[in-house]
Design brief:
Low-confidence stretches: 1-10
Strand order of the largest sheet: 1-2
Number of domains: 2
Helix content: 55-70%
Distance between the termini: 36 Å
Radius of gyration: 22 Å
Structural class: mainly alpha
Length: about 280
Amino acid sequence: MERITFQFQDDKGNLFGNWKLEIGNLIFMSIIIFTIGLFFGSFLNSFIWRYRKNILETIWTDRSICPHCGHVLSANDLVPLFSFLVLGGKCRYCKQPISWQYPLVELFFALLTWLIYWKFGLEVTFVYYLVIGFLLTALLVIDVWDGILPNGLIVISMFFWFLYMIVSRAHYYDWTNMVAAALLGFGFFTAIWLITLGKGMGVGDIKLALLLGLLAGVPSIYYIVFFSFILGAIYVLPLLFLGKTKWKNPIPFGPFMILAYFLMLFLGTEIQLAFLRIF
């Protein structure tokens, strides 16, 4: 994205002030984009809650309510992050605690929006990855709470991938590369599912691997699989050591796969170069 700057000269004709205006523009746009991400994150929380309650159709008609007392929330109660802090993490009306999901999702999606802006600028690609990020974050949170990866969200994500490939006039190589990655991810997790008789991996994780392969392509899918297991181990091993869980207890794997995808989306080139230097 082009940024407007002004050039000033001193008496000797030397340019000065450009860097200050450039930094000012960057800071201003960062604040705007981050704030927009916060509000999208707030909407995402509403989307997730209604999807889990199977009342998603009400998102355009019914106002948000407290999940504890059912009181309709006012605009003052819905300011992203700020309302949670001002209210001390409790409902204004029933004083029941507000789930930490709400501020965390708002912050996460604000950061995600900012990173997408810095990576791709304000182009069509920005809108595409914002939608994909919205849907993947919804999948992540739902999997954490309910241990499922809804087919509807995976199919919608695939539809937006297909639409973007058409709009961006993707090359034949891109189509074959991403379909190959999808089949590789699908095949790998299907093999784990078969070998462990369904105990080592869920069917939802297989479908998610198919989706992430389409989104990332080859060789990114290899790194996504690798880092998803690394992130999973970082989370699970301390819990096992502290006796907070057991090997037989199911733990959602989808969130680690999605976080690994985001890692490769923003740092994929650097990570691949680092691996090439090491190996």
